[in-house]
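Chapter summary example.
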Amino acid sequence: MNNGDFVAILDLNLEAAENAAAKLGNAKGYKVDVANEEMVKSVVDQIMAERGTIGIINISSAKWQTSRRL
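The structure predicted for these 70 residues follows.
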């Protein structure tokens, strides 16, 4: 990623999220169960505190899939 974008990778398996983030460069892995709404909200709040803004959220899981520009 050469354009300065930051990618937050959320996964139930923190090690997998961190490994994927390491391959991207300007990214960070976070542990979250996307089936747990409160946990997702907490991680989004954490990302907002760290980064100041979120431009796009794309969630893909076996339970549900959505993408939204904020």
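To summarize the output: The CA atoms of residues 9 and 29 lie 5 Å apart.
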